[in-house]
From TrEMBL:
Protein name, per record: Helix-turn-helix domain-containing protein
SUPFAM superfamilies on file: lambda repressor-like DNA-binding domains
Protein source organism: Fodinisporobacter ferrooxydans
Pfam families associated with the record: HTH_17
Stretches assigned to the Helix-turn-helix domain: 19-69
Amino acid sequence: MRLHFESEEDLRRYIAEQVLTTTEVTEMLGVTRQMVNKLVKGDKLHPFKSSGAISLFFKTDVEKYLKSKG
């Protein structure tokens, strides 16, 4: 997927609306941080960026996971 942004403001808006931290994922799924880590290790969720204790997820990926759970 290739995205194009007209301005830095558009990029910032996209990130704010479409990129989630692990904490935001826990809130969205109603689970603990440890459960998110298990989902990642179990290949159920895929962060697009991980660095140490920080992981970033696309909101659409988390929504897809939620839909798959019914």
